[in-house]
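Lay summary. Proteins are chains of building blocks that fold into shapes, and those shapes determine what they do. In this project we predict the shape from the chain. Here is one chain we studied, written as its sequence of building blocks.
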Amino acid sequence: MIATDWRLPDAPLRASAVTTTLILLAALVCLAQIARSGLPLGASYALKSSAAFAGMMAISIGFLQRHHRFERFGPANQITTARAMLVALIASLIGEPRVPEVAFSAVAAGVLVTMMDGVDGWLARRHRIASAFGARFDMEIDALLILVLAVLSWQFGKAGAWVVLSGLLRYAFVAAGSWAAWMNAPLPASRRRQTICVIQTAALTLVMLPAIAPPVSTVVAAASLCALVCSFLVDILWLWRHAP
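And here is the predicted shape, written in a compact code that computers can read:
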């Protein structure tokens, strides 16, 4: 999917996607207000999370028409949208007070997002509405969750600024394809890649636990980053060897 693919989908699909987005946006505002009642969050928390979620969906919906051949958004994409809503709530914790309650909230929401991962794919296969859009949408939410958890790990002093590389590597890899055409070639399916993604998410979630502090959190974050770097190197070498 590239920027030129973006366009508003036709009426039936657009209505289905926008309805899902609006319902979950309302749910997000309610959850944000509940979070503010129990956590020391700023007055702009609900606005930040709403803007983050709306931005994600505005970008995503533009790729539906060309990469989702069905007339309805579907339950699988609805689950992924719910995951996006939770990631927006986690992302909006960046810049909020660095207290254990906020860290634990990020962990709880991150665990929920991870538990929901896989449900969307199962639903897509069950209802026979699997699409390139759904697969990419799910992957982008996973990547964003890793970036957000990495930034929070740095913010809470669990590791140095280098931990943010855990979330930036994937975006750097995609950006590299804009000047190196051979890096845009499709990669073969890989269980290794999926496993490393799970390990990365689990490691960053673990280090965010209030009970986990340096040097333990630093070692866990560094080990997972090394595994991620190795995984990217394997993919880059494969693309280079198979370049035309």
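What the prediction tells us: The mean pLDDT is 93.
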